[in-house]
Amino acid sequence: MFRIGIIGCGNMGEALIKGFIEKGGVRSTDIIVSDIDPERVKQIVNRYNVAGTESNRKVVDLSQLIILAVKPKDIENTLEPLKDLFDEGKIVVSVLAGVKIERIKNILGKDIPVVRVMPNTPAVIGEGAVGISFDPVIDQEKRKEIKDLFSSVGLAIVVEESLMDAVTGLSGSGPAYVFTFIDALAQGGVKCGLSYREALDLAVQTVLGSAMLIKETGEHPSVLRDRVTSPGGTTIYGLHELEKGSLRDTVINAVESATKRSKELSE
Ligand SMILES: NC(=O)C1=CN([C@@H]2O[C@H](COP(=O)(O)OP(=O)(O)OC[C@H]3O[C@@H](n4cnc5c(N)ncnc54)[C@H](OP(=O)(O)O)[C@@H]3O)[C@@H](O)[C@H]2O)C=CC1
Ligand SMILES: O=C(O)[C@@H]1CCC=N1
Fold first, then answer.
1. Which ranges form a coiled coil (predicted)?
2. Using the 8-state DSSP alphabet, how is residue 60 labeled?
3. Which of 122, 68, 139 is nearest to 100 (CA)?
């Protein structure tokens, strides 16, 4: 038996495999993976020394915790052919945006415990942000085991399922927003004469350091911002440009729009 089976070895599936092994202390021998693309399976087996198979059925048959990491559009054609294999002791963990616990149970046609997890790609280096929503039937011991597993690849918080769309819109999609912001910061540096490499290094460290300052001091971002903003100095001129560009409104709208999309995916 394998402790963990992962169906779908794409961006998120691989990030979890790598994070579990390299940061979470999960042994490679505890994991079996499958994907519709045999070449992808071979790649993952070679990279992480996990067990691999072209058969999703084998993954379900041999695993206790079955992590679904296919795209939402593929959930039915992935799960339908497997439902006879889900029996006592197996738990489904779905990382699929927008796919509700109830929908997975309906496809399985039985009351198999299902957990919804919304990770993000920094889980690959153990710095993920993960939302977890438990099926009410899952006992405290199993909840702790699953929360500990995902805490091994970053910050894991338990939320009501009704908030999982917001988690998806904020932290699930959030790395893409931050990558865009960091690239724009670097391009600003280039416009002012820095090489892109220098500018990117400075931008990455500024975002990383600023985020860590919030995390380590527990101070509100506005307090820390005011400590940077010298009267009549440079920062207030930059901040004014951000306000003129409606940065805050745009970022709020981005999270809201991605959250709405997640809700649409669940319809
Ligand atoms: N990427 C991210 O940052 C995050 C993604 N997620 C969620 O994770 C899930 C996967 O996303 P992502 O990794 O980006 O997508 P990918 O397309 O990169 O990965 C999905 C993988 O599953 C494969 N696949 C498709 N159908 C099957 C099947 N029936 N059996 C086995 N494998 C199959 C796909 O193959 P093929 O490409 O040939 O179809 C692909 O290799 C999505 O539901 C997404 O909402 C959640 C949080 C963050
Ligand atoms: O874009 C997506 O749908 C997936 C879910 C969250 C991040 N990526």
1. none
2. H
3. 68
Ligand closest to Cα of 264 equals: 2
56 and 137, same structural domain? yes
Identify residue 267 by its one-letter amino acid code.
E
How far, in Å, from the CA of 204 to the mean position of ligand 2? 22
pLDDT tens digits, 119-158: 999 999 999 999 999 999 999 999 999 999 999 999 999 9
Sign of the torsion formed by the C-alpha atoms of 212, 213, 219 and 223:
negative
Tokens representing 2 are 């394998």
What number is the ipTM of this complex? 0.97
7 close to ligand 2 (CB < 6 Angstrom): no
CA of 172 to the centre of ligand 2 (A): 6
Specify whether 126 is located in the same domain as 150.
yes
Q: Structural domain of residue 34, as residue ranges?
A: 4-166
| Ligand 2 contact via 172 beta carbon (within 6 Å) | yes
CA-to-CA separations, 246 to 46, 223, 239, 240, in angstroms, rounded: 47, 20, 10, 10
- State the average pLDDT for the chain: 96
